[in-house]
Please model this.
Amino acid sequence: MLLQLLRRTAVFAASLAVASVVVFAFMSVLPGDPARVALGVNATEEAVAATRAAFGTDRPLVVQYLDWVSGLPVGDFGRSYVTHVDIGPQIVDRLLVTTWLVLSGMAVALVVALPLGVLAAVRHRRASGAVISAASQVGVAVPSFIAGILLVTVFAVRLRWLPSGGWTPPAADPVDFLRKLLLPALALGLVQGAVLTRYVRSAVLDVLREDYLRTARSKGLTPGRALVRHGLRNAAIPVVTVLGLQLSTLLVGAVVVERVFVIPGLGSLLLDGVANRDLLLVQGVVIVLVLAVLVVNFLVDVAYTVLDPRLRRAA
Amino acid sequence: MTAAGTRGRIGPPTLVVGGALVGLVVAAALVSFVWTPYDPVLVDPTARLAPVGPAHWLGTDTFGRDVVSQLLVGARTTLFVGVVAVGLAGVVGTPIGIVAAMGPRWLGELVMRANDLVLAFPALLLAIMFGAVYGPSTLTAMVAIGIATVPSFARLARSGALQVLATEYVLAARAAGRPRTAIAVRHVLPNIGGLLLVQASVSFAIAVLAEAALSFLGFGTRPPTPSWGRMLQEAQQLLAVRPELALWPGLAIALAVLGFNLLGDGLRDRFDPRLVDRR
Model:
């Protein structure tokens, strides 16, 4: 297993390195010169050259890349060419907001999917199981930003129970924080919950057909007991993988949901950066999002190896 | 036993419902070429926010543009983006997957690692990057969605090809001295065609979602070309006055996605007999 983990770590490190090169190269092949963009068309050559030196964009690309990438581990993302503000602290602030959003969305998804998925599997030959399956199929088709708009229409505009958007840090006012978090978390979580329900259902269905479950029942366990004692742990393995993939989906979904609910998270920062043509900022946010996806995938791989003894032996 | 044989003559319900919904979207797009109730981009200040009624079946938006006409032409945009993005992904991803399966082991390994790397760049993120550099447009959205979808096709084509390559008729073809390309084109491709079709349908659903999200964010189709995602974004400003304006494009997007997902499920039942007892 150690060898397997070492191999995965090596692949992960290599992916990180390549991803950083790709992001840097992509944002650097631009036709414009940041110094000229910052100064405007009427700037003198000397002024442009001076600004270029100040930005560090007069150095070779390789040097610029190494400078940028070596700052990343300590949270130094450089200074914006447009706003002249350090990018690192902004990203950290916004990342915190987005993390709240993603984790609460994940919690909603789990609360919805685990009971419904198991129920749909256990009753897959009955009407109630079919209804859950059909509902999850429909839920999968509703993107989170549409769910968000629907939730706002009903709970904010019509019923006026909850605010339609905005953000309050949890330390400032915990109640207001929760009130503002609830709708976006539901928008993100319900849709992912629908996706997850399908996976939980199919994982539990697979387990229900296993011989060891029949053995457990023949030993006198009730169907429910047998499933809880022997089935769910085995069903957890594929579900954990999907959960990991969903974490990445939630992260990207958050970009759109933040726009719907006017939440100052990483997604809003990214979109503002694009709108202001603040490319170094965009580059920073993109690498953080890609990093998050890669880290999650890596952890899923590791969890997979640890959870399933069969995979350990295969390695 | 085939999937079709166990069910009614017209096929599994998923296939029928999915096919009908997809057919509806295609029909809307086709109709929009010859007829729309009004010019979808015609701004009519006298008809701003007209209610649902005989003049405007689903009302008008804040600029007085007819909602039905916009929905019809929006279907065209949706299908266009989907076809180009999924087509691009299939045309690029399938050969990559087959080559990875037939080539030397290190090549297969390399392709799969590259695949994982591309998967770390979700379609939406790629499209925003493209938009930042080249300016947002339908083209950047299509290319970004297409690139993000390549790994799904490459992975599927590789695993499908590996299965086909292990069969005896491929062994026979090899023994008979058939060149590799001939084996790939004559044996591998036709045998994985069904799986690829399933993938295409599922990918199409994802492409529809991505295009809608991008247009919603302002990174997809530019005005004045009607797009469901942008209709939603414009309607969001008017939720307090006219919530139904958000409902129509939202419903259109959801039904299209549902249609392609169900179609994919139904096709999978057809082409992958191992999954028959799943439902």
In short: The longest helix of chain B spans residues 180-217.
